[in-house]
Input
Amino acid sequence: MRVLQILLLISTTFISTAFAEGPPPAKVMVTKVTQREISENRSFLGLLYYDRVSHVSSEVSGLINTVKVREGDRVKEGGPLVSINTEILDKEISLSKTRVEQIELRIRHAEKNYKRLEELYSKSGVSERDYDDALYTYQDSLKEKQASEDGLAKLLIQKRKSEITAPFDGVILEKKVDSGEWVQQGKLLVSIGSTKDLFVRVPVAETLMQFINIGEKVPVEINAFKKEITGTIEDIDPTADPQTKNIFLKVRIPSMEKVAENMSATVFVPTSTKKQLSIIPRDALIKFQGKDFVYSVKDGKATILPVNIVTYLGEMIGVDNPYFVPGMPIVVEGNERLRPDQPVSIEGEN
Output
């Protein structure tokens, strides 16, 4: 009985000590706050579009042999799009080549006869009329050959244009023909958007013009994929919305796969002059009751701090809270499990 009491006393003492010590410190990774002079920005919703679009038409008439692309296909400059049947054209080309060969035979005969009569004429062996006729026949044969060669060249151009190719690297936006169709000259075949000219058209208030600079880099998020990229403000549409007075920014973005015209994108546009802001990684953010917070470390414990985000910089954010100072440690790993005033152990710094 006494032994049992002793064991119970030891167990109680151990448990009391463990609770008094609390759980072990949470292991975290931190980064240091930096400061930079940048503009505040705000998100605006825009639409993707291809700024350079080619409506490819047929330059010759004929029967569509094959259509080698579908809507959504990506093509390289010079890649095949549509081919037109050239069976009859090939026969005309063959016949034209034969005619050129026949004329070359006549030229050789006419030249030989002309030179023979020229020599006789110099010795008064033939009349001037016979000499002139021989010269005319020879020169006319040369002109006939030139005309036939021009006709052959035209046929070869038609054959080359029967293979319609892509004018630039792009994506097929629209296909208007199928195999077996007869097309006339000028018929629209396909529309291609240049993958090197992908833009976001985003409306913003005209009052923001004072903060916007052509060539400025801005964060862009492709909403369908939650993918963040960097865009460049390349131009401003010359016509504002007549009702809202909004202007439209043209923001160039890198070529992307699996995107479509009129997909939405969020663009973060400057809304102020440049000011000194504290820069914090977005990985440090946590949500609490719908608001943004970060954890700092003070005296070995986690300290929760609200943040007022005024600009987005890709993987970073800019905040204007006065208590953030350069060099201040901010938790970027392990923050999702922390509680205010919880002991922490800093395992490293990013």
